[in-house]
C-alpha cells in the first residue's frame, strides 16, 4: 500500500466516522463541516499529490511535507481557538443559569417561610 492509498483510506474512514457521529447525534453539524472539509482536503492531496508540490513551490516552501504540517497546525489551532471560544460562551451561560436557579430557590424558600409564619 502506498502512502497515497493510505491517505485516501484515512480520508474515507474519517468521513465514515464523521457521518456515523452525526447520525448518532454525537457531533453537531457546524463542527462536522470542518472535519468533512479536512477529510476532503486529505483525499484531494492523496489523489493529486502534485497539488501539494505546486502549493509548496508557490509559497516558497522547499519541502512539501513541511507545508502540509504547517497547514495542519493552522487547522488544529483554528479549531482549538473556536472550541475554546465555545466553551467560554457555554461557561457563561451555565453561570447565568446557576445564578437564576439559585435566586428562584431563594425566593421559593422565602415564600415558604412566610407561609409557615401565618
Can you count the beta strands? Answer: 0
Summed up, the helix count is: 4
The average pLDDT is: 94
- Unreliable residue stretches: none
Query: What shape does the CA trace take?
Result: elongated
Helix content: over 70%
Estimated radius of gyration: 25 Å
How would you characterize the largest beta sheet? Answer: none
Give the SSE order as H and E letters.
Answer: HHHH
Separation of the first and last Cα atoms: 83 Å
Structural class: mainly alpha
Description of the structure:
The protein has 118 residues and is an all-alpha fold. It folds into 2 domains: 1-48; 63-118. Helix content is 88%, strand content 0%. Helix 3 crosses helix 4. The mean pLDDT is 94.
How does the SSE layout of this entry go?
Elements (H helix, E strand, L loop, with lengths): L2 H21 L5 H19 L2 H10 L4 H54 L1
Task: Identify the notable features of this structure and list them briefly.
88% helix; mainly alpha; elongated; single chain
What's a quick, concise take on this entry?
The protein has helices at 3-23, 29-47, 50-59, 64-117. The protein has 118 residues and is mostly helical.
